[in-house]
Design goal:
19% strand, 347 residues, 2 domains, 4-stranded parallel sheet, 50% helix, 12 helices, Rossmann fold, elongated, binds beta-D-galactopyranose, alpha/beta
Length: 347
């Protein structure tokens, strides 16, 4: 009976195995499309170092816009969770934890303290969630901790060189437009961003170096840190106007907002003709340039900025190869292009 049963079950077993093989083949064939179906929506967690920074707000609008475009073009629902860290790294660390617990597939982080992205990276690595940092560049040691960390931003040295070139080109075309008192020396003041920010240190160095390399006779009157802020820059400029009356010919600013602060102080003091140069090409910066108040700026391509962050993040979230339109330097850095914008001096 047992033997018989074995014979019977052996025959059945073959059939069962054959059937199983067919079922397996069918399931394998189905697997690809089914996995794709699971990826019809992605969740992107974003934390901004501050919500009241003009340039970061311009980038935020682009991120929202590009996420919508991505949805339409790819038929994938994109949910953005945007948080503002109000200048506190510990607040940002908590936000990262929350974004991970909400099920974000990828994080886009504008770090508060770019010198210490350790906690953010630890949390992301533990959860297996890739991170696209932007605008505030983490130190190389942190970036090298994991191969799923990326950085998108502008090249600070290039920005500085372009700002120096903007001024130098104009000086050589119309020297008295820059050396306004015509004494053979351009006397300038310098407005700097946050102390530890790569964009402040490197922009300052290369802007001034380029002016020297281009042979512009310059003399620094004074300078100070205004942390990217219009009101702080305005207060500094007010002091300089009263401590060095009738000497300032040029204001070199690390960003547009501080340049606008300097313009506010000049207007309050009723001073005309001093040249003010910024960086960023923010909405109010470009407006001031069009109104003849700001001499010029170095503008980063904000549309590409938004697309690069969203598309690289989406690639990470979907586990797909990253988009080829954004070739990465050293496998993790994407640099946004920039251009010089200058007032219409003819008009
Ligand atoms: C700089 C920008 C500043 C400010 C800062 C914030 O690149 O020029 O205006 O937004 O980033 O990190």
């Amino acid at each position: 009976m047992r033997r018989c049963c074995f014979l019977w079950s052996s025959g059945k077993k073959k059939k069962a195995l054959a059937l199983l093989a067919v079922v397996c083949a069918f399931l394998t064939a189905c697997q690809g499309p089914r996995e794709e179906e699971e990826k019809k929506s992605i969740r992107i967690g974003i934390s901004l170092y501050r919500g009241d920074d003009t340039f970061i707000n311009n980038i935020r609008s682009e991120l929202e816009e590009k996420a919508k475009e991505y949805e339409q073009e790819h038929g994938i629902k994109v949910t953005l969770d945007i948080q503002e860290a109000k200048g506190s790294q510990s607040t940002q660390n908590n936000q990262v934890e929350r974004l991970i617990s909400l099920g974000c597939d990828v994080l886009c982080i504008n770090p508060v303290d770019r010198m210490d992205a350790t906690v953010v990276i630890d949390k992301a690595m533990t959860a297996g969630v890739p991170v696209v940092f932007f605008n505030r560049q983490p130190v190389e040691e942190d970036m090298n901790r994991w191969d799923r960390l990326y950085y998108i931003g502008v090249d600070a040295k290039e920005t500085g060189i372009l700002q120096g070139q903007l001024i130098a080109d104009l000086y050589w075309e119309q020297p008295d437009r820059i050396d306004i008192n015509d004494d053979g020396v351009v006397s300038y003041v310098l407005l700097e961003g946050e102390t530890n920010h790569q964009d402040a240190m490197v922009r300052t160095e290369w802007s001034i170096q380029t002016l020297k390399d281009e042979g512009v006779p310059i003399e620094r009157i004074t300078g100070g840190i205004a942390n990217w802020e219009r009101s702080q820059a305005s207060a500094l400029m007010e002091q300089w106007i009263s401590s060095c009356p009738d000497t300032i010919e040029l204001v070199v600013s690390n960003n547009d907002d501080m340049a606008l602060g300097a313009i506010d102080a000049l207007e309050r003091a009723g001073i005309e003709g001093v040249n003010v140069v910024g960086i960023d090409g923010t909405t109010p910066g470009v407006e001031a340039m069009e109104n003849g108040k700001l001499l010029g700026t170095v503008s980063s391509n904000k549309e590409v900025y938004g697309s690069a962050v969203i598309e690289i993040a989406a690639g990470c979230a979907l586990g797909e190869p990253l988009p080829q339109e954004y070739p990465l330097t050293d496998g993790r850095y994407y640099w946004i292009s920039q251009e010089i914008l200058i007032q219409d001096l003819e008009g």
